[in-house]
Every structure is written in structure tokens, then in C-alpha cells.
Write a structure and sequence with these properties.
By secondary structure, the chain is an alpha+beta fold. The protein is built from 6 helices and 19 strands. The chain has 2 domains: 5-148, PH-domain like, CATH 2.30.29; 168-302, Roll (PH-domain like), CATH 2.30.29. The strands form 5 sheets. It has a 7-stranded antiparallel sheet with strand order 10-9-8-16-15-14-11, with helices on both faces. It has a 5-stranded antiparallel sheet with strand order 1-2-5-6-7, sandwiched between helices.
Length: 314
């Protein structure tokens, strides 16, 4: 049933008021089985989707108000050995949750934003006829619960050659580049950049750029960005242009990368990664300076990667 705009606005106002009460539960819950899910995350469709699955991790996220005004209904994540199911509760009583399901082996990219207490998880994978998009916002306090199952999901996207685990963290010649990284990004590489068994084959760091404004003011025009090419992934670790307290993380399986290219921009270039799984395609974009783009192009093509000036046909 389609609800009128004014009715929806009243319902959201009521839910926001409930979610901001002092006694309201704001913590993620780790559950044992699907039957333990809150009622608003239960439905016959959920039962059908999860029937017979071995569940590694089951998380329930309470309703929240993000950025002061945006209401996020209760959510659930069901991690299985090969994939993940996202459940998003309806704002209307009696309606079942929205269900998004994807498999790690179909992964195109995973993008995680962790800024102060604000978190956002975006996963794009090959789906039924078209790419599947999983998009959820959460409180970053829950990241310690999310990180291990997401890492397992990423490892499911590793191609066959990844079965041979690397013995060293860096390939030849990369150690010196690592030693020159700012401390925050050196730690970020170890914590977020390297998945188990991976080795860093290429490393390019872009230091942030600030532009003078008036006499004493400066504004950021380019963020700190670390690009990594590991055994099976392209990994991007960056800061937000305005909020430096946190991370923005992206993981792209090399098996799904068709090519990389760049388009000129006003102050930076738009780097595009063209992705493909089967007949389904997606794009991942990133803003980089011309110098960083050139350095990454050299690193990428050195390992046989394709660099295209125009989008691939079809």
C-alpha cells in the first residue's frame, strides 16, 4: 500500500521521537539464530531466504537517527559462509522487511565510510539480472562486530591464485615506500589494507592539498589517499575531505576489474574503475590529482592492468 506523503512524514516524526529517547537501545545485538530476530525483521520471506543456511554471524542494529535528521529503521545482517543478507525493517507496522542478498564470489566492490560515529556500508555485487546494491548506515561503535564477517566476505571474492598465501607483507621495492607513509596511513595499511594472505605489490600515496583563502584561511581541495594493489585486490584508504577523524575504505577484487581510466576535472581527475562480473557491469570512481593518477597508471599497467581513455563498449 502506498502511503501519502503527509502520513509518512507524521510516521517518521513519531519514530524519530522514539529513537531519541534516553532509554532507547542504541547498541548492536549479536543473535544466535534467525528466530531471535526482532519481530520487525521477521517475515515468511526472511524464513524462506535463510532456510537451510549455515549462519556465521547474525547482527541486529536498532533504529537510529543519523546526522540529526535522517531516520534509519531497524536493520539486520545475516552472514553465511558465502555471502550476506541485509534486512531493513519497514516504517509501517505489519509489513515485512526489505531483503537484499548477495554472494561474496559475485562481489564488484565494497565501500565502507567510518567518520566519527557515522558509518555507511555499500556493497555492489552481481545479482539476478542486474547488479545488487546493499546500502546501510550504522553507528561506527558497531564496526568491531562488522569487520570480521566483512573480511570473510571479501576473502570469498579472492580468485584461484589467492590460494597461495603470501609469506611477506610487501613485495620487493615496496618497503621503502611504506616507510615514507604518515604514521596514520602506515597503521591503516596494516589494519585495513591487507587481508589475510595478501601481499602489497604496489603502493601510491597522495598527500592532501590545501588552498590558501584570504590571508590566514585555508580550505582542503584534495584528501589524503592511499592506493594499494595487493595480490587479489585494489584497496583505497582515504580520509574525508572535511572530516579527517576516520577512514573511507574501498575494496575491489582484481578479478572483477576490466580496466581503469581517468577523465580530466577542474582541480582533480576523476579516476574510473570499470568492473564486470559475467555480463553485469559497474563503475567505481575516485578523485585524484593528475600526479597521483599518473603514478597509479604506471603502477597498474606494470602488473598487466588495462588503462582505457574511454568507457568500454557494451
Amino acid at each position: 500500500m502506498i502511503k501519502r506523503g503527509d502520513e509518512r512524514a507524521r510516521r517518521l516524526a513519531q519514530l524519530k521521537k522514539e529513537a531519541t529517547r534516553r532509554d532507547f537501545d542504541r547498541h548492536v545485538s549479536v543473535l544466535k539464530d534467525v528466530a531471535s530476530l526482532p519481530p520487525e525483521l521477521q517475515s515468511s520471506a526472511v524464513t524462506e531466504q535463510t532456510a537451510g543456511l549455515s549462519i556465521h554471524t547474525l547482527l541486529s542494529f536498532p533504529p537510529q537517527v543519523h546526522r540529526g535528521w535522517e531516520y534509519i529503521p531497524r536493520q539486520g545482517l545475516v552472514f553465511t559462509p558465502g555471502g550476506v543478507i541485509h534486512l531493513l525493517a519497514s516504517i509501517w507496522p505489519g509489513q515485512g522487511p526489505e531483503i537484499t542478498r548477495l554472494d561474496g564470489q559475485d562481489l564488484l566492490y565494497l565501500h565502507a565510510t567510518l567518520l566519527l560515529l557515522y558509518g555507511r556500508l555499500e556493497i555492489v555485487a552481481r545479482g539476478d539480472g542486474r547488479p545488487t546494491h546493499l546500502d546501510m548506515e550504522f553507528n561506527t561503535v558497531a564496526w568491531s562486530y562488522l569487520s570480521p564477517p566483512l573480511q570473510r566476505l571479501l576473502l570469498n571474492a579472492r580468485e584461484a591464485r589467492g590460494a597461495v598465501l603470501a609469506q611477506a607483507m610487501f613485495s620487493a621495492g615496496i618497503q621503502q615506500a611504506y616507510a615514507q607513509l604518515p604514521l596514520k596511513f602506515a597503521n591503516g595499511l596494516k589494519i585495513y589494507g591487507l587481508l589475510p594472505g595478501e601481499q602489497v605489490e604496489e603502493l601510491v600515496f597522495q598527500p592532501g592539498i590545501w588552498k590558501q583563502r584570504f590571508l590566514i584561511l585555508q580550505r582542503p581541495v584534495a584528501a589524503n589517499v592511499l592506493l594499494l594493489l595487493t595480490s587479489n585486490y585494489l584497496v583505497v584508504i582515504q580520509e574525508d575531505l572535511k572530516v579527517r577523524q576516520g577512514w573511507i575504505l574501498s575494496y575491489l577484487p582484481r578479478a572483477g576489474i576490466q580496466a581503469i581510466g581517468a577523465r580530466p576535472g577542474e582541480s582533480q581527475e576523476e579516476v574510473i574503475v570499470w568492473l564486470k562480473r559475467g555480463e553485469q557491469t559497474a563503475e567505481y570512481t575516485l578523485a585524484l590529482t593528475a600526479a597521483t593518477t599518473a603514478a597509479w597508471r604506471t603502477a597498474w599497467t606494470r602488473h598487466g592492468g588495462q588503462w582505457w581513455q574511454n568507457p568500454p563498449a557494451g
